[in-house]
């Protein structure tokens, strides 16, 4: 199998420098490469309404937006309203504050996600959490990420960043199998031999082996990301080709 065209997207953090210069033009050029969806990360002084119009004009679908952890308490209803305006289905918390990287802190985050997930569900949306490597740290025999996996699946899903999962010592394929349906969106980010970021398909991660279990994991969106591309457009084009060339078996 190959990844379905409608599931191939770009997480816009990759394109932040060019977005700051020309948001609508960037979206049109991404569509020209072949991307069909985007994940929003940073508005660059544009409203949700404006970004929705830019995406519509480009023929792209916004599938999610990253929303800071503090907004869970400060303005969650407003954040969800913006996600709906964008036409997206997922509100994604990109990280937990560093001062909460403890068992107690992750339990507090799990409680906050539970309540926020209820509000999102009532609004017809879904709350997701995006991981970094240290979210898989083990503290006193407890893997922090597992605390979040304990939240009701109806209230919290996950945008699994494949690079950071591997960096944190975990196998995405195993996560898909052990926690079916929890991972509707992925950050497809490759790893160079020296451990730095690389364009999709040019690094050492075995995405084909991971994606053999993507259906079990509930994956619907494969979003390209590169944290620090030398040339955002070359990276976007190269990663698109790399992602479309990945083959995997449906087990």
Describe what you observe in this structure.
This is Sugar phosphate isomerase/epimerase. InterPro entries: IolE/XylAMocC-like, Xyl_isomerase-like_sf, Xyl_isomerase-like_TIM-brl. Keywords: Isomerase. The protein is α/β, with parallel strands linked by helices. It has a single domain, classed as TIM Barrel (Alpha-Beta Barrel), CATH 3.20.20.150. The chain contains twelve helices and twelve strands. An eight-stranded parallel beta barrel has the order 1-2-3-4-5-8-9-12, surrounded by four helices. The chain is globular. The model has no long low-confidence stretch (mean pLDDT 97).
Give the C-level CATH assignment.
Alpha Beta
CATH superfamily: Divalent-metal-dependent TIM barrel enzymes
Number of helices: 12
Biggest sheet strand line-up: 1-2-3-4-5-8-9-12
Q: Stretches where pLDDT falls below 50 for ≥5 residues?
A: none
Element pattern in H and E: EHHEHEHHEHEEEHEHHEEEHHEH
Count of discrete domains: 1
Please outline the major beta sheet: 8 strands, parallel, barrel
CATH topology, what is it called? TIM Barrel
Radius of gyration equals 17 Å
Q: Can you give the helix content as a percent range?
A: 40-55%
**How would you describe the shape?**
globular
Averaged pLDDT, please?
97
Which architecture would the CATH scheme give at its second level? Alpha-Beta Barrel
Structural class assignment: alpha/beta
Q: Count of DSSP E strands?
A: 12
Cα distance, first to last residue? Answer: 10 Å
Q: Estimate what percentage of residues fall within beta strands.
A: 15-25%
